[in-house]
Structure formats: structure tokens, C-alpha cells
Amino acid sequence: MSDRVLLGMLTPSSNTVLEPVTAEMLRGLPEVTAHFGRFRVTEISLGDRALKQFNNEPILAASSLLADARVGVIAWNGTSAGWLGLDADRELCATITKETSVQACTSVLALDEIFRKTGVKRFGLVTPYLHAIQERVVSTFAGIGYECAAERHLNDPGNFSFSEVSEATLEAMVREVAASRPEAITIFCTNLRGALIAERMERELGIPIYDTVATAVWKSLCMTGVDPARVKGWGRLFRDVR
Amino acid sequence: MSMATLGTLTPSSNIVVERVTNGIVADLKGVSAHFTRVPVVGDKVHLLDRHDIDTMLAAARLLADARMDVICWNGSKAGGIAFAADRELCSRIATETGAKATTSILAIDEVFRQSQVKRFALVTPFPGEYQHKVIRVFAREGYDCAAEEHLDIYDNYENSQVSGERIAAMVRRAATAKPDAILILCTNLAGAPVVAPLEQEIGLPVYDSVSIGAWHSLKLAGVDTRPAAARWGSLFAGT
């Protein structure tokens, strides 16, 4: 029992995708389990109320409950740094670790690391977000050296509705951005079912596809000393990126 | 999408509920499991004599944001208070969120009544004085404890470290009293994986407080649980 690896996942309250996807990814790893703690997220916009959802306090409260389970890592399995800037996630991770003594990571910091490690400069961006959020995400990534070669978004304030976007819709969006031949495509939103299409779309298009639930799980495994290659069928990220 | 969605209120120091619930769900089609935590940590948890309703409702509302069909408190605390504490909790959760609500303890009550269990054996990791409190609570509900086994563990996290072999040994000893059923109680105890083999071995129904909570959630959501019976025990075989 003491050889178990416990991954803590900070979960947006209205998200219905990341828990089943994470559990499924870990199914072939008997010693690894995921544990979840929610904080309130119901809308994604640049409005005051929507932005305040990502203040540190509720996230830290959820982190502290995950720390009660003595998890080996706490991951913010969400993409708010896309519009708040990556420093928001860096500061969050530092605060989580300071308050809980547990190492921390996030979907977006992991994506940045994956882009750097694989030399991605031009990427494709697929999200469900509003125009204004999408613009902020594009400029956040431009600010750290990644050019958005093509993007598709659904102009939806979410957050629950994001989980209802069909795999067929996501596939169509991915194909459209693939036409610009980016070096990688990210499906950016942890309440989208993007992880479920990554493997087959990579095969179809020959372009790596990085879903943000997958990036959080990948980084959590790396940080807890588990070989990500043991996660099979969920795309090149787990197979190839170290 | 016609997914049945199960929301589980998980004790914060618990590392068993999510693993078992996801294991059960993996055997079924069209079900997705969701979780959030409520504070339960340390060696004083046995001393609490009521639910912190406000905290639990706040957690239930976070699950309701994800539009759960059922919300289950997968903790056994009411077993040391009174079943009424969980009935009150469920009625508040249902009123506030519109989801159906249940708990591990109310699931046990449901199964015991349905299968006419009157004499049960109680297997837990609890300290002795708390064990006897639980036995009195069950007696008030009409269930006589025919045999009991406990481990005198105080810290909730430590409960998760008890091996399946050790739990199985307690169940075997409890079975010698020939109870109507054996109950493994404590949702941070990894009893669920040993239920099916033990039922085969001893020929008595064995219920685990984690898997019974998940089972009742599935029933309330209208899910056919039979595909889970091979791995999780006879409870799941019923229609």
C-alpha cells in the first residue's frame, strides 16, 4: 500500500470531463490513483466575477483537503493561465507548495514545458472559449514566444456546456487548424473531451496533439517518478516527451 | 449524452473511495464519477457527534455545478451518531441541489432492510470505544451485532494502510458467529476488493461501506449494476 502514487487534481466545480478521463488514463497503472477536490468555476469570461473564480483562496482550500490525503503532487487541471498569464500559475504552484508542502503543477505550465522540450514555435489552438478569452490566450502564448498559426473557438461562456461539445466537432476544429501545418495543436480546456480524440487525430494528421487534461496528468506522473509511457493509447505526449 | 453522473462527497484524508468508485464504474457503461472533498483528517474524527452541515452542503453545491444525478456522502460517520443524521443531510442536499442523495450508512440500512438482515457482524479499523458506540447506533435501528472485529486505529489516514489480507482475516473470524451478513465499515478501509472472493469462500453476504455507497448511487441513477458483480460482490448482482 505504501508504494502507491497519489495524484491530486484540482477540479473546476462544473467540469465533468477531467475526472473520468484522468481515471481512464491511469487504469493500466495499478499503483497510481487520482484524487479530486473542487472549487467553484461556472463561467469563463473576462468579467469580474468570472475572473475572481481563480483567486488563490478557494484553490488553496481545495489543495489543503487534497493534502489531507497525502498526495504526491497537486495539479491545477485547468487552463486559467491562458488568459491570466503563466505567472499566475507559477505563483499558485509556489503558494500551494508553501502551504501544503506538496509539489504542484498545472495544465498550462506543463504545456509550456512540452512546447519547449519539443521545439514547438508555431502551434494550433482549439478551444470552446469566447472571442475575448481566445484573444487573450493567443496573446499570452505570443508573449512567451509561441506563434498561433491557426485557431478555432466556439464563443461559448461555458463552463458546463464545454463538456457537451462532441468529439466530431472537436475533430473538425482540429482538422481546420491542421491545415496551417502547425508544429503541434493544443486542445485547450479541461472540460473538453479532447484527450479522447488525440491518439486518432495524431495518426490522421501527423501532428502532435496536446490536450490540457493530458498535459496535467503527464506532468503529475513525471513529478511522482512514474514513467508516462505506461499510459497507452492517449497520444504521443505520453510515449515520446520526457 | 446519456451519462449517469455520480457525485461523491469524499472525506479529505480518504484515498480509497475514489479508487473503488472508479473501479466499479470501469465495469459499467454510461456512468461517470465525480468527487469533491470535505474535511476529515487526524485522530479526533471519532469525537464528532454531528455533521458540519454547512461545509457538507457547500461541497454538495460544487458537485451540483457539474449537474450530478446523485450525490453520495461516502463516509460512515453517521454510524457513530445516528442514521437520522444522514437522513437530514440527504434531505438538505436534495432540497438545495435537486440531485438525489444518499450515504454509505443509508445504503447499508436499505440493503439490510431489503435482505432482512437482523444479526450482522461488524468489521472495522476503529478504536474499541467508538466500535461500541457504532454497535449501539445500529442496535437502535434494529440491527443486532452478532460479532465484531476492530483494529484500534485512531488516525483516519492509517485506516487506508490496512492490507486486504488483514481485513479478510477479520471477516473470517466474524463469520464464525454465523451472522446474516458481514459489514466492513469505514470508507477509508480497502475492504471492497476482498468482498467478492470472501463471499465465495464463506458463503455469507459481505458488504463494504464504500462499494455499498457506490451501489446505492448507481441504483438511484437507474444504472444496471450486474456487470460489476463479478469483481465487487453479490450486492451488484441484484436487479
Uncertain segments of chain A are none
Q: Return the structural class of chain B.
A: alpha/beta
* First and last CA, distance of chain B: 24 Å
Percent range for β-strand residues of chain B: 15-25%
Give the number of DSSP strands of chain B.
8
Strands of the largest sheet of chain B, in order across it? 2-1-3-4
What form of chain A results from the Cα inertia axes?
globular
Largest interface: A-B, 32 and 35 residues
Q: How would you spell out the order of helices and strands of chain A?
A: EHEHHEHHEHEHEHEHEHH
In words, what does this structure look like?
The complex is a heterodimer of chains A (242) and B (239). Chain A has 242 residues and is of the alpha/beta class. Chain A is 45% helix and 17% strand. Chain A has eleven helices and eight strands. In chain A, helix 1 (18-25) links the parallel strand 1 (5-12) and strand 2. Chain A is globular, with a radius of gyration of 16 Å. The two termini of chain A are 27 Å apart. The mean pLDDT of chain A is 97. In chain B, 44% of the residues lie in helices and 18% in strands. In chain B, the strands form two sheets. Chain B has a four-stranded parallel sheet, sandwiched between helices. The mean pLDDT of chain B is 96.
